[in-house]
UniProtKB/TrEMBL annotation:
Name this polypeptide is given: Actin-like protein N-terminal domain-containing protein
Phylogenetic lineage: Bacteria, Bacillati, Cyanobacteriota, Cyanophyceae, Leptolyngbyales
Length: 367
């Protein structure tokens, strides 16, 4: 058995990974998605001045082939990184993968030379570059520094699949077959929206476009000066489809109560308008790319749940699968972590993928 098996989803707002060492004991590790280019001097100063003993994933920095990056919480809170939505997810995914592996190794005492079976989910558009990702990771994992410590591992196997694969492979009912069926997979993430079609178990077409939930948030942000994207995103999600004024109350910054109430009302109106317009744009795009005839639609991604009612109406003539059983399993097994961040529905894809990795026979290296 491989020393470490990882199923990894390099999401735009958080990196999520289910993993297990041997013997089998699955765990969940979450990291912020930010990546910041840093100088050797800046990380040296950070380490010299650091107080306390943070968890490895909260103090992650990488040195690889002469380049330095801070990743996750450290990048976001100490080096002022943003979400890098314009950058290639593939490029950032390599740095985040190195940080993830380094953190897991540090927390579990995994020695250098250990073997790793690494599975990754990528948007359909970047899935086409999976061989390049494999090359990046294979080259880097053989020798890099995590928080100044030398790390070196062997990539025993690399398994890359398009986002949604975990839902298709483990999110359908017992005995459900892909044969003789046309299945549409729709993943609505923060940066991208991906669609692909499986006909009799084979992907026949697919497309990704950068029209994820960030477009919605940017529209609101343009009408509410001064609100940071991550703060606004969290508030919009908490407010829900009915746009609860109470959930938005903390966004008001005026000291005068009446002016603060007016400010919150303005934000709420901006969200309502953006919500309606975003769905019009998204639904029109979906109509252009979804086949006229399909047997089942599998929906995933955090944004999709925000529009659950609209998706139900949109796919009214098709069996709609939200993979609720996967979400229930996550809530049962990882409740403290997922409830704290309201994450269970964002984890279903990578959790299904993890179960696929550990439940299938060991694939040939470099699948």
């Amino acid at each position: 058995m491989t020393d470490l098996t990882i199923a990894y989803d390099p999401g735009s707002t958080s990196s999520r990974a289910f993993h297990t060492l041997k013997p089998f004991k699955p765990e969940l590790l979450l990291m912020e998605s930010e990546v910041a280019e840093v100088s050797p001097r800046s990380v040296k100063v950070y380490e010299a001045n650091r107080l306390g003993n943070p968890a490895p994933e909260n103090a992650a920095w990488i040195e690889c082939k002469g380049e330095y990056r801070a990743v996750g919480f450290l990048a976001k809170n100490h080096f002022w990184a943003d979400l890098n939505l314009a950058d290639s997810k593939l490029k950032l995914a390599t740095w985040k993968a190195l940080a993830l592996i380094g953190a897991i190794a540090s927390k579990n005492g995994l020695p250098n030379g250990s073997t790793i079976r690494f599975g990754a989910l990528l948007p359909y558009g970047e899935y086409q570059d999976r061989e390049l990702f494999e090359q990046f990771l294979t080259s880097a994992i053989g020798g890099y520094r995590f928080r100044g410590e030398e790390r070196s591992f062997e990539l025993e196997s690399f398994v890359c699949r398009p986002e949604g694969f975990g839902l298709v492979s483990r999110g359908r009912g017992p005995g459900a077959s892909l044969k003789e069926q046309i299945i549409v997979i729709v993943i609505v993430g923060f940066r991208d929206v991906s669609i692909y079609v499986m006909n009799r178990g084979v992907i026949t077409r697919g497309i990704s476009k950068d029209i994820g939930f960030s477009k919605f948030v940017e529209t609101v942000q343009a009408q509410t000066a001064g609100l940071k994207m991550d703060v606004l995103t969290a508030a919009i999600c908490k407010a829900g489809p009915k746009i609860s004024a109470r959930a938005l109350a903390h966004l008001g910054r005026n000291l005068d109560p009446s002016l603060r109430d007016a400010e919150v009302t303005q934000i709420r109106t901006a969200i309502a308008v953006a919500r309606e317009q975003y769905w019009l744009m998204l639904s029109n795009w979906l109509r252009h790319h979804i086949p006229a005839q399909s047997d089942e639609a599998i929906i995933g991604g955090g944004t999709a749940y925000y529009y659950e009612r609209e998706f139900t109406t949109f796919f009214s003539g098709v069996k709609l699968n939200w993979c609720a059983e996967l979400e229930e399993q996550i809530n049962r097994c990882y409740m403290p972590q997922v409830s704290q961040h309201s994450l269970s529905y964002r984890l279903t894809d990578v959790y299904g993928f993890f179960n696929y990795l550990v439940g299938s026979e060991r694939p040939t290296a470099h699948v």
